């Protein structure tokens, strides 16, 4: 049940653009009683799968601002 619920949440999150752990982990921990470490793993696993599917679709549609992405990558590199 937790995996199905996690998948549905991750799919919704991927479609809306909200960070995966922001909603998935609290819902799994508070409403399903899943241990926090397992909830984090579930959220990461399903959000990764969904994003691996959606990123190529966004690239094909031309929705990626490459210059902005480059600046974000350069800014994140020192961190």
Describe this structure in words.
With 79 residues, the chain is mainly alpha-helical. The protein is 82% helix and 0% strand. It has four helices and no strands. The longest helix is centred in the middle third of the chain and has 26 residues.
Secondary structure elements and their pairing?
Blueprint: H1 2-16, H2 20-32, H3 36-61, H4 66-76
Helix pairs in contact: 1-2, 1-3, 2-3
- Unreliable spans are none
Shape: elongated
Cα gyration radius (Å): 15 Å
Helix vs. strand class:
mainly alpha
Mean pLDDT: 82
Distance between the termini: 37 Å
Number of β-strand runs: 0
- Count of runs of 4 or more consecutive helical residues: 4
Helix fraction by DSSP (H/I, runs of at least 4): over 70%
The SSE order reads: HHHH
How does the major sheet shape up?
none
Index terms:
79 residues, mainly alpha, 82% helix, 0% strand
Brief overview, please?
By secondary structure, this protein is mostly helical. It is 82% helix and 0% strand.
């Amino acid at each position: 049940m937790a995996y199905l619920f996690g998948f549905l949440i991750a799919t919704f999150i991927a479609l809306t653009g909200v960070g995966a752990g922001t909603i998935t982990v609290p819902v799994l921990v508070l409403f399903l009683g899943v241990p926090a470490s397992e909830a984090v793993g579930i959220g990461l696993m399903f959000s990764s799968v969904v994003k691996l599917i959606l990123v190529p679709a966004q690239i094909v549609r031309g929705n990626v601002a490459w210059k902005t992405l480059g600046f974000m990558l350069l800014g994140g590199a020192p961190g």
